[in-house]
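HUMAN: Forgive my ignorance: could you write out one protein's sequence and backbone structure tokens?

ASSISTANT:
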Amino acid sequence: MAQDNSSRVTEFILLGLSDTQGLQLLFFTLILLAYTMVLLGNLLIIVTVRTDPKLSSPMYFLLCNLSFLDICYTSVTAPRVLVSLLSGHKAIAFEGCMAQLFFLHFVGSSEMFLLTVMAFDRYMAICRPLHYTAIMARGACWALVAACWAGGFIHSAVQTVLMLQLPFCGPNTINSYFCDVPPVIRLACADTALTEWLMASNSGLISLGCFLVLVASYALILAKVQARVSQGNWKALSTCASHVMAVTLFFMPCIFTYLRPAGTLPTSKYVCAIYTILSPMMNPLIYTLRSSEVKESMWRLRKRCRTF
């Protein structure tokens, strides 16, 4: 344990995913592959949307922002764990740990809000098509995205300030591969019951609230589609089904992790891997494979690149 003159912990030790050499090599390979897919897949979506005028609808504008958030979100944890698995260096400075915690919740909660906005966009496009263009104008889309980032910043700032108020003078070993609220708060040298409930009310209720709004939006869309069966509506329903798959993969582990005080049950680091690595990797596959417009645009982009 690293301490200064006031017995305050100055660094934490991240135990990672495994101590076994063979498993470390396996995890390094899998995480490197997943991170590469996140970077390439989401960058491809961003380039495709930005270069194709046919993908100028609000849905693709929001999808482009989601891809950017996915890159940022995975980059908060993946490079650090890859270096740790490769070098064996598991220590992280106290300031670095708090910074990782801040950016993880900043980008993660911004993505939650953005996914909720995307569900609202699909609801307006399917259930209120006559008002869709006016409500989801480009200026409104920019305002909604800015609100998502602002909401994520406020949420993360509250989390980080609460963590910085706690004294850390005892054990400094974190049974995870990144710094997050549940494993770090257990190391505080104080009664953290109130702080844990505040954390659960903050992160947990945001996760649950956004997920319930998403479920309600897609339930309304489903009811609307059933009332007006047509090829276009079934296509919209297929798009919504892929969105539901993506948000469930992201939200359910978050709800399980954050909607309870940190001291009640240990949080599985493998569950954390679902929403920090697996979900951002799956988003490009889900959104592109279920969208013929995006696939056609990528094909046109490939043709243009081959001409140079």
